[in-house]
Amino acid sequence: xxxADTPPISNGSINSTEDDFLSRNGIFTFSSVVKVLMxxxxxxxxxxxxxxxxxxxxxxxxxxxxxxxxxxNMSFSDLLYTVIAIPPLxxxxxxxxxxxxxxxxxxxxxxMNAMAFGLIASSVLTLAAIAYDRFFAIxxxxxxxxxxxxxxxxxISIWICSTLVMSPMLYAMRLYEDNNTSFCYEDWxxxxxxxxxxxxxxxxxxxxxxxxxxxxxxxxxxxxxxxxWFRKIPGNGNETTRRRVIASRRKVIRMLIxxxxxxxxxxxxxxxxxxxxxxxxxxxxYDFFFVSEFLIRANGAINPIIYAAFNENFRSGFxxxxxxxxxxxxxxxxxxxSVTSSKHSNHNNVKRKLLHKETQI
Length: 361
Hints:
Helices cover 75% and strands 3% of the residues. It has nine helices and two strands, in the order H-H-H-H-H-E-E-H-H-H-H. It has helices spanning 30-59, 66-93, 102-139, 144-148, 151-172, 194-230, 239-280, 286-310, 312-356, and strands spanning 173-178, 181-186. A two-stranded antiparallel sheet has the order 1-2. The chain is globular and about 75 Å long.
């Protein structure tokens, strides 16, 4: 299968060909305008929402726990993925080719595509790390302090694993240049057969960053849910306090399970597309390709909305962030009015002194 002539299924990579499944030969249509507006909206919500998430966690002392700091790590991945993945999708919709040539074009082609895979892995592994942390914090609370000491190591390990996942793309992605156009494509030669290597890498990605993490999360959250909903939690403290703690933990688990389910649903269409193209040689509707590519980008915008919907700390933090912005703008306007008023007052004083020939003694 010649990858230069197939739809660019690359988990948000920068692929733009003359037959790009997102373009309509450069003609602006109502559909293309709607798709661009959808992408812009997702980009804005993702950027603003994830920035607020980072702000809320780092400015709220009680939220500086393993779970929320790992959520910050995922928000950081979502921010980077939005910056990397949205522009190529928009240019593809508008039918604009990838027009960077030479060594710079090759670097962008390899690095951006590889980064897309690495950031996907980072998000999935972070979700798995959150499930692992919640499992020990709730089911084995006495081991929580020990896990806290390993938080930095866990985050470093996530990014090391993500780098390993993306490294094959640094080798395989190539830049094809022809007159004024250029595009990225996948070529594993001369050391590997391109078709077999692409299929192997696709299966490996599915197993490593989709199947294993989500089976792990399914098992861990099932055990956590059984523990919180069906077992009497031991303790000699105040019953009201214990119930409040359990209710709070249940809300957090509901939020995390919703995030995981959302991630699965957003990435499932792309998995279907990838396996259909690489293994079944199935022709799918053009709009299905767009939906699969759009959903993976929308996932980063959906997560902050889930945080705000399920978690009171995030809701109050979002309000505080917006109020701070409103207060700073109000303060700036007040200062501007004050300065203007002061200037006007000084001008009147000078004018009055000149008219009455007043002098200071």
